[in-house]
């Protein structure tokens, strides 16, 4: 595991850390929690992910990614073949950002665990996840309900699909 706010100052070193991740195949996971780097930081991370840098785990909790930052990451993950776990809790991700992630999950065949808890998406994003999980064959664990604005009906549809496919959905 690499990266911690106590080891690196977010703005000054994010680019350097992302560059190391691109080149070093021995780093299996990184945590950039509470760096609040927004879209600019998402671009740096996306470049490392697009390079299939060997990362298997990434935690980007509380970084103000929003929809635009998640869209950048989702685009990079469409071709990534190493990442298996992605945590993006508390990032103000709305329906458009979740739609981008859901679209990526339709084609990405390595991601197994996703945590989207405590974001701002509702049933539109829930519908996009429902559609992607219908075709995705690798996701086996997803946290989506905590803090989301998904209505009861969509919640039940997602739970029903998860039960049929053996996906653990945390509420």
Textual characterization of the structure:
- The chain has 171 residues and is an alpha/beta fold.
- 45% of the residues lie in helices and 11% in strands.
- Strands 1-2-3-4-5-6 form a 6-stranded parallel beta sheet, covered by helices on one side.
- The relative contact order is 0.11.
Structure in a nutshell:
This protein is of the alpha/beta class and 171 residues long. 45% of the residues lie in helices and 11% in strands.
Query: What characteristic shape results from the CA principal axes?
Result: globular
Counting DSSP H or I runs of 4 or more residues, the number of helices is: 6
Tell how many strands the DSSP assignment holds: 6
Largest sheet: 6 strands, parallel
- Gyration radius (Cα, Å) is 15 Å
Could you give the topology of this structure?
Blueprint: H1 10-23, E1 29-31, H2 38-50, E2 57-59, H3 66-77, E3 85-87, H4 95-105, E4 113-115, H5 123-135, E5 141-143, H6 152-165, E6 168-170
Parallel strand pairs: 1-2, 2-3, 3-4, 4-5, 5-6
Helix pairs in contact: 1-2, 2-3, 3-4, 4-5, 5-6
Core attributes:
171 residues; alpha/beta; six-stranded parallel β-sheet; 6 helices; 6 strands; 45% helix; 11% strand; globular
